[in-house]
Structure to design on (638 residues):
């Protein structure tokens, strides 16, 4: 009987792992470098769960020379006994049975972080080698798998150790037949490792790179948890009050905490997590906090006569201007909603978030009248700007047909109305704009020439940004609206292409535009609609052939590929403005020949830091950035 059971589940196991190998995307999203990194987090998650259960203090992640990864924790170690449902050891079960944590844990083994062991079998299925070592009860056990999860060494006792020494160590080598690449990026792993340290206070995380050309190690441990995360994000910004406000509470196994601090900037940075996962579309935990924040600030302002009876109440947008806030919820049974599962749906969390936040924040306002005053002054100023912006925004709203709208005569639109095939080029300078208009495909390509530099929105509120004609034209052209009324579905172009010269001024204009897009149209950037055109740097002529190349490297490769006797002429390309329509079309606009660079956002905290540093109020961080990066600048003689 037992024998039969074993065989039956054995077959099931292989079928399960085979399914993962057939459709890896279903389990880890993609098989590119992102999916590769995902494997690490699947294993680390199990260690984090052990930490949340209160048994693990240190997690070590190591990238080895051969691109394999080791994750080690000092938790209790995965149980080594025979698992009642599978008839094999629990270690082997966790690594070979899909969703072992959920299905075979009988729903009973749950910690705040989720389910132990989920994901381990997926990593095994997608690895060419996995080695698991468990230390428990003074013994060392080992178990090995190869070739997508085939057991080559059943759990075996291989030695003894100190009775107090416990934990799990897993080494895996991703299967290169599955992944496009097996090269890990240290900085990507580092950013997330640091984030996990912020989100799990007192947990020590060490990341080590043993690859010879890299050789480095970082350890993170934050006693202050998300409080220190807020401090980290506000580095380079100017806080308007010293103390970082921190509130926490727990109810029925749901843990909830918030840390916040206002700065002088105009954008908000509200980042929320559930079980250490970023809920980029918010959800009930965020809603609870936002609702309470708005209510409390209004109550306080009215009670203290800062808002008079006749005054309108402050809105949610007013009270979040310049706010950096981390919300973290640990939930035993989270419900993720939405297309990308980035929204928390559990309705009971809204109430918990509201009550924890109100209690703590109300107290903060009472005990710190000076800070309260500063925060409320900022919100009332934001409210005045909002009213002014509303008036200005009306000018950007399209009424009826586009042809009848006044674009100040600047936008030269395309004929096609279906956004999925339309593109808009934001072109530096009138003369390049002129060539672009002549050289474009007028069916699908719209041109918006930009005169001079646009306003730096990092240092301006919406109302002032809207008084800038260039920005108004851009908003109108995009069609999405802005602020509260922003709607990504109304975007009139599939591609927004920044076309600037390959020089310092061109880069500056590009960064100004990206600042505008990231601060005012972030969903457009996140959805991958923003591109930078890449005008070529050199033109090489030989015989009847004209070859354009993007950079020195391409130039050298191309020249090396020519017959040594070939006579050629090489010239550095002129600025966009000096190209004629045909050249511009040929090199930069023709969809069959051009090369576009897609602008993506890897990490919102990093992107925010970059814009704060490059475009914000504080000068010192910018100077430091320039000093650190000057060595990358190219000095070209022209
Ligand atoms: C490097 C990766 O996977 N660490 C883990 C534990 C500890 C327990 C456990 C894991 C029981 C029912 C599965 C120990 N003692 N690091 C890790 N540490 N899993 S994974 O339990 C497994 C679950 O289904 C553990 C008592 N209870 C739990």
């Amino acid at each position: 009987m037992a024998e039969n059971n074993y065989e039956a589940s054995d077959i099931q196991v292989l079928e399960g792992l085979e399914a993962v190998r057939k459709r890896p995307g279903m389990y880890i999203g993609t098989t590119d470098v992102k999916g590769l990194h995902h494997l690490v987090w699947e294993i680390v998650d199990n260690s984090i769960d052990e930490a949340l259960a209160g048994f693990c203090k240190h997690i070590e992640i190591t990238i080895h020379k051969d691109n394999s990864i080791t994750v080690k924790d000092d938790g209790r170690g995965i149980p080594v006994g025979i698992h009642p449902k599978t008839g094999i050891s629990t270690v082997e079960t966790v690594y070979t049975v899909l969703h072992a944590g959920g299905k075979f844990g009988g729903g009973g083994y749950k910690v705040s972080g989720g389910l132990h062991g989920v994901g381990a079998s997926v990593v095994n299925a997608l690895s060419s080698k996995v080695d698991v070592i468990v230390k428990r009860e003074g013994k060392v056990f080992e178990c090995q798998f190869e070739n997508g999860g085939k057991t080559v060494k059943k759990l075996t006792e291989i030695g003894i150790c100190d009775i107090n020494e416990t934990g799990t160590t897993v080494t895996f080598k991703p299967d290169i037949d599955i992944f496009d690449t097996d090269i890990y990026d240290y900085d990507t792993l580092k950013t997330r490792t640091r984030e996990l340290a912020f989100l799990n206070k007192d947990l020590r995380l060490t990341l080590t790179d043993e690859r010879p050309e890299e050789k480095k190690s970082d350890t993170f441990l934050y006693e202050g948890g998300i409080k220190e995360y807020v401090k980290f994000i506000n580095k380079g910004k100017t806080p308007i009050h010293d103390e970082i406000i921190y509130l926490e509470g727990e109810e029925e196994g749901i843990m909830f905490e918030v840390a916040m601090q206002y700065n002088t900037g105009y954008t908000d940075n509200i980042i929320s997590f559930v079980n250490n996962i970023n809920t980029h579309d918010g959800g009930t935990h965020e809603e609870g906090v936002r609702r309470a924040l708005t209510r409390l600030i209004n109550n306080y302002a009215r009670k203290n006569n800062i808002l008079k009876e006749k005054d309108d109440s402050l809105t949610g947008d007013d009270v979040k201007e310049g706010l950096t806030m981390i919300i973290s919820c640990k939930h035993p049974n989270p419900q993720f909603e939405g297309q990308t599962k980035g929204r928390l749906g559990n309705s009971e969390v809204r109430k918990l978030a509201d009550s924890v936040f109100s209690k703590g924040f109300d107290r903060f306002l009472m005990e710190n009248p000076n800070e309260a005053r500063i925060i409320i002054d900022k919100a009332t100023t934001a409210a005045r700007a909002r009213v002014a912006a509303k008036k200005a925004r009306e000018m950007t709203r399209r009424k009826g047909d586009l042809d009848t709208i006044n674009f100040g005569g600047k936008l030269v639109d395309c004929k096609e109305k279906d956004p999925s095939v339309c593109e808009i080029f934001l072109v530096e300078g009138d003369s390049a704009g002129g060539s672009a208009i002549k050289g474009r495909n007028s069916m699908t390509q719209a041109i918006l020439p930009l005169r001079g530099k646009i306003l730096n929105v990092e240092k301006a509120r919406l109302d002032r940004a809207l008084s800038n004609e260039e920005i108004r034209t851009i908003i109108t052209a995009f069609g999405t609206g802005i602020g509260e009324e922003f709607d990504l579905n109304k975007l009139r172009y599939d591609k927004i292409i920044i076309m600037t010269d390959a020089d310092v001024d061109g880069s500056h204009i590009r960064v100004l535009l990206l600042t505008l897009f990231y601060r005012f149209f972030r969903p457009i950037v996140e959805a991958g609609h923003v591109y930078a055109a890449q005008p070529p740097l050199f033109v090489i002529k030989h015989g009847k052939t004209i070859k354009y190349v993007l950079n020195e490297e391409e130039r050298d490769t191309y020249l090396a590929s020519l017959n040594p006797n070939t006579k050629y002429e090489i010239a550095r390309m002129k600025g966009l403005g000096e190209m004629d329509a045909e050249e511009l079309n040929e090199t930069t606009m023709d969809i069959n020949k051009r090369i576009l660079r897609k602008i993506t956002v890897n990490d919102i905290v990093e992107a925010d830091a970059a814009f704060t540093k490059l475009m914000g109020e504080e000068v010192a961080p910018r100077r430091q950035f320039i000093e650190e990066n000057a060595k990358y600048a190219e000095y070209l003689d022209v």
Summary: The chain has four domains: 18-220, 226-393, 397-535+582-635, 538-572. The CA atoms of residues 144 and 199 lie 32 Å apart. Residues 43, 46-47, 50, 71, 73, 75-76, 78-79, 90, 94, 101, 104-105, 109, 116-117, 168, 170 surround 28F (CB under 6 Å).
